[in-house]
Amino acid sequence: MRPTRIVAIAIVGLVAAACGGTTTPQASGAPTAGGSAAPAVSKALNIGFTNSQTGAQQVASTKQTEGIKLWVDQVTKAGGIKLKDGTVLMPKVTFYDDGSATDRVQQLYTKLINDDKVDVLLSPYSSSLVKAAAVVSEQNGKVMITAGGADDATMEQGFTNIYQVYSPGSKYLTGAIDLMLKLDPSIKKVAIVNEKDSFSVSVVTAAKPYAESKGLQVVVNQGYDTGTTDFAPFINQIVAAAPDAIIGGGHLVDGTAFAKALKEKNVSARFVALLVAPPEPTFADIGDAANFTVGPSQWEIPVKYNEAAAKALNIPFYGITSDSFTSAYRAMFNSAPSYHSAGGFAAGLILQRALEDAGSTDPAKLRASLDKTDVMTFFGRTKFSTDAKTHGKQVAHDMVYIQWQKGSDGKLAAQVVWPTEAKTAEAQLRK
Amino acid sequence: MSVILSVQNVTVRFGGLVAVDAATFDVEQGTILGLIGPNGAGKTTLFNAINGVYNRHGGSIVFDGARISGLRPYDVAKRGIARAHQIVRPLNDLSVIANVTVGAAFGREDLSLGAARKVAEERLAWLGLADRAEVLAAKLNVAQKKRLELARALASKPRLLLADEVLAGLNPQEVGDMLGVFRQLRSQGVTVVMIEHLMHAVMNVSDRVVVLDYGKKIAEGSPQEVTNDPKVIEAYLGDPKLAARITEEG
Amino acid sequence: MSLEALIPSAIDGLMLGFVYGLAAMGLTLIFGVMRVINLSHGPVIALGMFVVYTLFTGPLGVNPYLGIVAALVIGLAFGVVEYFVALDRVINAPELTTLLATFSVNLMIIGIATSVFTTTPRAVDVSLGSVGIGNVTVLGTHAVAVLVAIVVAAGLYGLLFRTRVGKSIRAVANNRAAAELMGIDSRRMLALAFGIGTSLAMVSGALLSTLFPFNPLSGTGYEVKSFVIVVLGGLGNPTGALLGGIVIGLLEGVTTVFIPVSWVPVLEYVIFILILLVRPAGLLGARA
Amino acid sequence: MKRMRVPFLPAIVALLAVLAAFPILTNNPSMREELFLVFMLVTLASSINIIMGYTGYVSFGHIVFFGLGGYFAFYLMQIQGWHFIPSLIVAAIPSAVIAALIGFPILRLRGAYFALATVGINEAMRVVFNNWDLFGGAVGMFFNFSVYTQYGGAKAASELAYYTMTVVAIATITVSYLIKRSKFGLALMAIREDQDVAMIVGIRPSRPKIAAYVISAVFPAMAGATFFFKNGIIEPGHAFELLRSIESLVMVVLGGIGTVAGPIVGAAAYEWLRGFLITNPALANFQLFLAGLLLLVTVLFVSSGLVGWLRERFPVLRGYVP
Questions:
Q1: What is the mean pLDDT of residues D158-168?
Q2: Is C116 domain-assigned?
Q3: Residue C73's domain spans which residues?
Q4: CA-closest candidate to residue D109, choices C277, B74, C237
Q5: Closest among D271, D158, D169, D40 to A110, alpha carbons compared
Q6: Is residue C242 part of a domain?
Q7: Is the pLDDT of residue A29 over 50?
Q8: Measured between beta carbons, which residues in chain D are less than 8 angstroms from residue A201?
Q9: Which positions in chain B touch D181 (Cβ < 8 Å)?
Q10: Cis bond before residue A419 (omega within 30° of 0)
């Protein structure tokens, strides 16, 4: 057979396979008949979102999806979401791979709304994908609970249907500065080195004036291109400027590389806080270089927001505890949850509560309920801005800070060092 | 009759090598000039100098009363000089008719696409390629490609045709046809300068012959005069076969 | 701006430049021999990183520097296979065809690598200490990387200019038809050259894995840098590539002292384009 | 034998117009979204085809014009408060000027050198915009959602974007067709086949080349303006994404390089295939691998692309499908 013929046949075969195979979305948690003896009407609650099974956001996005899956699983096992009028909503999620691309996100969210007829939306992971999805859900008047879109700018676009569970980016490093000054008030000089991308720049844009307002002097202020792994130029400038503290970073690989380079070049700063990378378990791959590095996180396993904490603030507590979340997660996925997992689960919880409160999937009623939400979950406090300019922005959730510390057994562990109520170890200065 | 092309002291250097050395000759309008000489004598280089491919040369080239030295090839083409290459260079992925239309559309007359296509059809008919018009140029055989090369050059209705070994590789029948084309051109007032190794053909059709050797002109005159020139015979001694042929056939 | 950082930055840049240069040598060798711009270069660099990582973190805990040897061998084999699968059939086609053929390999490698390794950052935790003189700190890992780069580059030079095979490769690069008339099996030489080029890329990836964290997408940045270096040194000129790498490394080190680091790539690309326009044969090459 | 003249252009324009009207008439927004992307890809692929397929210059970083158009239009809308349509038209002008300025020097480069230069230009542009505060730097620019009210709400705005993209795509195809059938196009193809011969027959190559480059830059600029208007945000990484550039080349090759119909078929096929792979759970993990494999098979065995292959197989098509 001539090669061209083989190819032609191969292509025809592929086409045939493509046409034959149905493009069924990935669904889980479909309502089960078993145990539904209740007289109530059982209705499907269609929830849609996209995630990044491929591309740059794959790791965190997968974790977030797992959090959502766990929530669906728990709700389903509990017999669904029971509304006041007796209706029971059985969650059914539909999601597609967005390949970490904004055009794909917009196309798929439109598909979710119009073809899959979802009632409510959850978000993709990462700021720019969330922004793209928000535009579509806003166009269609669908409520979207976002996790993993911490960029402040997202929530300053005048949206009315978008609700942010995460603390916004502007808080990522300001809390680190508080922690640092509490730890060592003598710190005066700080170096800021961050990735030049949307998220990191917006974090630093908030952190720099905050540092200056606290009387700190910014001695190095540099950005680096996405994908940078060689930090020698910054290190040399940092060494020359001799700051007491270094804050910045960006995403996973670059942040890890930065921490590694700081250690290798024996940089003597007493405090180092980097974005995104430190809470990731593989951060420990760099060995001793991880030690003492501080990282902001939305949530960590040891963090224990509970009934008592809620009572102290005079707000209700909703849902399961941190411990039962973590153990259920381990049981289902055979791995520890990250803050992305918790964020996904928390987005589900907040949605669940709003549905119960509103007693309906009607967007207007859901919005009214979400607007007045002030609740504590295992993920922390949740309250949304109702100001027209920043509507839906998270205003009450607190960041958690972890620090890698070497235990007496010589093993590195990520300890929660802030806020004080949740800490598992005292923060330490670098040595 | 008037001189249409005047080559004066033209010198082309490549680094240290002098490919054409102060070549000087005139071509009268409506005549056929044969340009002969052993391989490496600088004939093709001289063509490249005339049509602007090598536009940094010494001396001067005057065409139809205007100096064309230093002009780029497209400007030379616009003035009515066309070229058929020794190694055919068809535009492979275009059809035969498109190849010839290119020649008609951008040459001297700058025709519209429709008009150019008409001219192209005529030229293809003239050169016996009409039935291959829609075929891709790459699919032609060698003899057809040679004719295509010539058709493209002639499509621009040139006043001067630089024909570089268009007869090489053709069978006697085809050579005869081609010579017919040249004679027809001459009768239409088109001037032809042809580089050719096929001696009987050159001598048969040329009005005058110029002989180059090592970049230098060593002889010029009617075919008769040139064949009898001892310098020419000596130059060809390096190539005994040619020497034999030139004396035999002349 | 701090001049204090000038010397250490220059030295750091210079050292890294050797590794950049090694990667670029692979790219330029392939272009020089077969006129192919290898778009699978970046993912192959990343594969080199994962060869070391997998051996190091695997049950045997293979020393990263032994892993480099493995990368060299695997790279050679991988390149030869890639040549026969993706390039042999289209080696004489216009450059768009070979560009896309290697790009398709790029997609396949990234596709498989991300599904196997995910995009989580990985690092090979190896430390060889450091030597400090004044404010200059030279890391053991970087010093070894420079040494390995020099040894491998010298090996390539020896192979190309001191062996029969090298002679054949150069003959094929010069004039494939003439080489075949001389009885050289040009297909084998092309496959071998592609293998060597791929091997160089993998070795540089292996070296980079000992310096910086990485994931399967990490090769892309080095690939673009390799393009810049290759043009600087002259497309097809391995010695030029090594020098080009050093120049780029040094440039990155020195300029960051004077201009914001985030602008350095602009400078690099501008130099890249200018060289293409003014001296397409590269700084070292003869004027085109 | 006289070739039969088939009105390809009216036919394809009518087909696209009907196709474009379909999701509106049947009120099917997700089909609209899908077609929006298809039309965008058709625009990108057809534009690249003008410089690559007709003229023979592999513009690897062609997406730079998509990004520039997007940024200029976004600037006019966001900072100057302009309406979308005038922004789109005006944004095409600086993009065209930049194309002319870039084209003048780099179109003298041949083959691989040109391809590499375009990559350099795209990357340089990306870093420049990443650092340039006027255009929002690394954060990029984003609309306040209320800007869409002037278009009758977000839904109407996205429909406007859809209509615009349809018009841009049809305009691109029309221009691509007219070029192919024109004397200008013949000059481009002669240059593609052999620039030296083209010069010898009287073509001054620099002008048609630059003209082709500028034309091939204008439509992506408009597509970029439309895309980012609908998107509501623009960031350097998304505006100057080299991968999208390469994907457009792939579409051209899949469909058939140098033909008018090829890029249309290629873009539609590519988008359909990607959509299929990405939403198919069994294949999602291997989609990149499969995409690579399919591309390799095409490049190795069907190098003239789908349309080219059909034309070779059934020569009668040559008169119908340019």
A1: 95
A2: yes
A3: 3-225
A4: C277
A5: D158
A6: no
A7: no
A8: 137-139
A9: 113
A10: yes
Contacting chains of A (3 CB pairs or more, <8 Å) are: C, D
Using a CB-CB distance cutoff of 8 angstroms, which residues of chain D are in contact with residue C37? 112, 115-116
Same-domain status, B110 and B205: no
Same domain flag for B199 and B209: yes
Do B211 and B118 have their domain in common? no
Question: Per-residue pLDDT for B194 more than 60?
Answer: yes
In a domain, C18, yes or no: yes
CB contacts of C265 in chain D (<8 Å) are 123-124, 127
Q: DSSP 3-state assignment of B67? A: strand
Whether B94 and B55 map to the same domain: the answer is no
Calpha distance A296→A274 (Å, rounded)? 7
D109 with C280: Cβ contact below 8 A = yes
List, for residues C13-70, the tens digit of each pLDDT value: 999 999 999 999 999 999 999 999 999 999 999 999 999 999 999 888 899 999 999 9
The stretches in chain C having pLDDT less than 70 are: 1-2, 284-288
Give chains near C: 3+ CB pairs under 8 A.
A, D
Domains in chain C: how many in total?
Answer: 1
Strands of the sheet containing B191-195, edge to edge, are: B81-84, B160-164, B191-195, B32-36, B208-213, B216-221
Mean pLDDT, chain B, integer: 88
Residue A378: predicted pLDDT: 94
Report yes or no: C257 at the A interface, CB cutoff 8 Å. yes
Contact D200 B152 (CB under 8 A): no
Beta strands in B73-180 (DSSP E): 81-84, 160-164
Angstroms from A163 CA to nearest CA on chain C: 28
Does one domain contain both B72 and B8? yes
User: What confidence tens digit (pLDDT) does each residue in D42-79 have?
Assistant: 999 999 999 999 999 999 899 999 999 999 999 999 99
- H/E stretch holding A163 reads strand A162-164
Whose tokens are 């997202």? That residue is: A154
B154 and B99 within one domain: yes
Chain D: touching chains (3 or more CB pairs < 8 Å)? A, B, C
Give the residue on C whose Cα is nearest the Cα of A221.
Answer: C260
The verdict on a CB contact (< 8 Å) between D121 and C95 is: no
Say if the Cβ atoms of A223 and C261 lie within 8 Å. yes
Number of domains comprising chain B = 2
Same-domain pairing of B132 and B166? no
- Domain around B38: 1-79+161-171+191-250
A350 and A314 in contact (C-beta within 8 Å)? no
Q: Which residues 26-85 in chain C show a CB within 8 A of chain A? A: none
- Quote the percentage of chain D above a pLDDT of 70: 97
Residue in B102, B112, B156 nearest the CB of D190: B102
- pLDDT of amino acid D322: 79
Chain segment A380-399, per-residue pLDDT in tens: 999 999 998 899 999 999 99
Is C114 an 8 Å CB contact of chain D?
yes
Q: For residue D238, give the nearest of A25, A102, A157 by CB distance.
A: A102
Q: Is residue B184 part of a domain?
A: no
Contact D155 A113 (CB under 8 A): no
pLDDT at A153: 83
Q: Which domains does chain A have, with CATH numbers?
A: 6-167+305-383 (3.40.50.2300), 171-297+399-422 (3.40.50.2300)
Where do the DSSP E strands lie in D124-214?
A: 141-142
Contact C190, C50 (CB under 8 A): no
In the predicted model, what is the mean pLDDT of residues B176-203? 90
Q: What is the CATH number of the domain that holds B241?
A: 3.40.50.300
Within 10 A of D21 (CB to CB), how many other CB atoms are there?
A: 12
Same domain for B247 and B166: yes
Report the percent of chain C where pLDDT is more than 90: 60
What are the C-alpha distances in Å from D226 to residues A140, A180, D35, D257? 20, 46, 14, 26
The answer to the question of residue C266 being in a domain is no
CA distance B77 to chain D (A): 5
Instruction: Report yes or no on chains B and D touching (3+ CB pairs under 8 A).
Output: yes
Alpha carbon B233 to chain centroid, angstroms: 24
